[in-house]
Amino acid sequence: MRTKIPFLLMAALTFSCSPKLAPQGQTDARPEPVTLLLYPEGQAVDKGLAGGPLESNGLTGPETFRKDGFRYNVTDSASVTLYIPEVCNGQMVVVCPGGGYYGVAMVYEGYRVAEWMNARGIAACVVKYRMPNGHDRIPLQDVQNAFRYCRAHAAEWGVTKIGVMGFSAGGHLAATASNLFADKTTRPDFSILIYPVITMDPAVSHGGTRKNLLGAENFSEGDPRLDRLEDRYSMEKQVTVSTPPTFIALGADDKTVPPENSLRYFESLHAAGVPAELHIYPEGPHGFSFRRSDEHDPIAYCRPDFDAALTRWLEGLR
């Protein structure tokens, strides 16, 4: 099956490791992972991979990163990395790594997830989304543009259903995409949330995530504009019958994002009649993410159970 990328976008290709596309005309192999800039002419220009952003996030300077793949100061470098298996089972997952809306954990909550999905015949699209810097709409714009691009190419890849998956603040972004979608194209078919931030209630939310998304420090106490933003981005308040089926997993001893976030969301899903599955492991520190077999695994004792549960749940959606 041929994977086609518009000619004008070829100049926007950036590669992780050494991915490459099969030459045009070859149909015997899928491409290796390929990274496309979401906004190849910059976030201030209304010409993007699948539509331009509404605004700039106001950050300047180059993107920076740690050795573990954590990326900071994402602006014009926002991108999607596509992992298309040779034989796709019809499913695709748009992956939103976490990072408190301050950065993105691209390896353990991005590329490792895509590898896990590919091993099960599931395509993946890892989104390196722009940091909001108090511009609350920006991360969702990036994820929705990723959905638009993936929907446009789904038939070429053998994809019929596209879901969203997120970790921590990326879990909040995935939940936001699951409730504040713009249309059928941007509505996920299913949702996977791993130790997610859900609410903007300051008593329960993750402080950094709330601050970076809402720009809360720019509002005085009691400002009704902040109250409206908190309501809009408290996802337990946005669930409807149109919210997609959801899988949630977390550790009971999460010291970073209180488990009440997931409990509130599950209760809202249940009340709305949305199919939902919740897994709470007794020991599972925040950030347990996805790991290869040769890497330290903070939930090694229950990883087989987690893998089996998520695999079964995904198979049930096919």
Word description of this protein:
With 318 residues, the protein is of the alpha/beta class. The protein has a single domain (7-317), classed as Rossmann fold (3-Layer(aba) Sandwich), CATH 3.40.50. The protein is built from 7 helices and 12 strands. Helix 2 (138-157) packs across helix 3. The chain starts with 12 loop residues before the first strand and ends with a helix. Residues 1-30 have low confidence and may be disordered.
Quick one: CATH class?
Answer: Alpha Beta
- The best one-word shape is globular
At CATH level 3, the topology is: Rossmann fold
Output the structural class. alpha/beta
Beta-strand share of residues: 15-25%
The CATH architecture can be named as 3-Layer(aba) Sandwich
Largest sheet: 9 strands, mixed
CA(first)-CA(last) distance = 21 Å
> What is the helix fraction of residues, given as a range?
25-40%
**Into how many domains do the coordinates divide?**
1
What are its keywords?
318 residues; alpha/beta; Rossmann fold; three-stranded antiparallel β-sheet; 7 helices; 17% strand
